[in-house]
Amino acid sequence: MSWQAEELKEKGNAYFKKGEWASAETLYSQAIQKNSSNPLLYTNRANSRLKLESWRDAIDDCLRSIELMQENMKAYFYLAQAQISINHPNEALSSALMAYEMCSRSKQQTNNAQTISALVLRCKKAKWEIRERDRLRRRSVVLGDLMQKLEIDKKRDLDELDERVAKGGVGKIEASEERADIEKNASNRMGDLQTAFAISNPKELAIREVPDWLIDPITFEIMHDPVITKNGNSYERATIIEHLKRSATDPLTREILTINDLRPNIALRHACQEFMEQNSGWVYDW
Q1: Pairing with 33, which of 81, 160, 242, 276 sits 20 to 30 Å away (CA)?
Q2: What's the per-residue H, E or C state across the chain?
Q3: 183 pLDDT above the threshold of 60
Q4: What is the pLDDT of residue 107?
């Protein structure tokens, strides 16, 4: 039965490459029926379900794949994407960090490091944004009520869209575009609202953000003593040196890298110091 599953998987891969996600999902499901003990079939189907925005089904596939194979970078990577899509940033961050850890200790050359690193940062920022919204609500009852109203409106619009999809009134691609518009518009409204309140009371309601260029791509914490590699990537000195003791490669590009290739990133260090001094009251919460 395993050879039949392999044939079905290859057919599914062909449809996936053509962007025919639903057909790919169907063939992967048939392959799983032939060989339900192959963890890679579940990650293949999870990836197609991510494309179809079937988030919870993708989560189920990833969890099943992890049950069958613990060291499963792809499953954790896909799992994080599905979890962040249903607004579960805590779980998504945990899954993304697992994928990043597995990627970083992989002996094989892989192009996934930068993509996974970007996902970790996205999850961490989403977690931070929720904490910030809660903080602002506690500081201003009016702001909290208005933001809650915007979230209710967004959920209503998304629920109505899901109903239209279920009834066949809108296709998958059109629904995906409309869902993205709803999310973007809601985010823009919340940002505008927070900005307006921050202007009215900057001491209490200022929006607190950490720029991406301050974040070490290994620990995802704010850098204090950044160094730059010959490839132009910047890291916190202590963390990149510790990494190079284990593997003489750039953790993002996987190109050969040694401690002697590191140079102080003086401009970035000054920027980090200035940011820490200006935001010392809260920045350690990041």
Answers
A1: 81
A2: CHHHHHHHHHHHHHHHHCCCHHHHHHHHHHHHHHCCCCHHHHHHHHHHHHHCCCHHHHHHHHHHHHHHCCCCHHHHHHHHHHHHHCCCHHHHHHHHHHHHHHHHCCCCCCCCHHHHHHHHHHHHHHHHHHHHHHHHHHHCHHHHHHHHHHHHHHHHHHHHHHHHHHCCCCCHHHHHHHHHHHHHHHHHHHHHHHHHHHHHCHHHHCCCCCCHHHECCCCCCECCCEEECCCCCEEEHHHHHHHHHHCCECCCCCCECCHHHCEECHHHHHHHHHHHHHCCCCHHHC
A3: yes
A4: 66
